[in-house]
């Protein structure tokens, strides 16, 4: 699946804009600055594919990337923007809910958690939304290179405890560093295993 090239397809702002559900897809969610763009770039081996900095104007978009001809990687930006207007947040949440509960080809969501910070309230919210949408999700710890082993273990324990409360959570946690490349091959093979 990861042999082919990766391209940005489109940013979707309404259900009518979704590309045809003609291939498997996985989506990525996480607070802004968690390292989501870096992870998507690392997974696809395409520098600059996902924007390395999200601009507020694009927070309501669901961004689709192809990875070869048989896989979509879907970037779900847009949570943890405390200063976005309420109407914008509500419109976004509605689209997100409809996408998550209606997308037949969506095989798994990856919820990105910063290895330094653990699960925050907004992460809990997205996890609950995934529960209610019946989308299996798996936690990916980002920026693993930034924490010492001892601190990392403490954070992983906190994540494990949080996951235990969510019926849609897949128990295995993936540790990654987009900077060092750790865990990227593991994550690719997890995605390939979803076929
Ligand atoms: P996004 O907002 O979730 O898309 O986050 P970005 O991918 O833009 O990353 C936010 C910041 O964290 C940037 O300065 C990245 O260079 C940095 N970053 C992302 N991944 C890693 C990582 O694995 N290790 C380190 N040390 N920094 C990272």
Please state the average pLDDT score. 91
How many DSSP-defined strands?
A: 7
Q: How many H/I helices?
A: 5
> Span from first to last CA?
9 Å
Q: Into which percent range does the helicity of residues fall? A: 25-40%
Structure in words:
The protein is of the alpha/beta class. The chain has one domain (6-192): P-loop containing nucleotide triphosphate hydrolases (Rossmann fold, 3-Layer(aba) Sandwich). Helix content is 32%, strand content 27%. It contains 5 helices and 7 strands, in the order E-E-H-E-E-H-E-H-E-H-E-H. The chain has helices at 36-44, 86-102, 121-133, 149-163, 184-192; strands at 6-12, 24-31, 62-67, 71-79, 106-114, 137-142, 169-175. The protein has a 7-stranded mixed β-sheet with strand order 1-3-4-2-5-6-7, with helices on both faces. Helix 4 links the parallel strand 6 and strand 7. It is globular. The N and C termini lie close together (9 Å). 35% of the residues are buried. The mean pLDDT is 91. The structure holds guanosine-5'-diphosphate. Guanosine-5'-diphosphate binds next to helix 1. It holds the Pfam family MMR_HSR1. Residues 22-195 form the EngB-type G domain. InterPro entries: G_ENGB_dom, GTP-bd, GTP-bd_ribosome_bio_YsxC, P-loop_NTPase. Necessary for normal cell division and for the maintenance of normal septation. Belongs to the TRAFAC class TrmE-Era-EngA-EngB-Septin-like GTPase superfamily. EngB GTPase family.
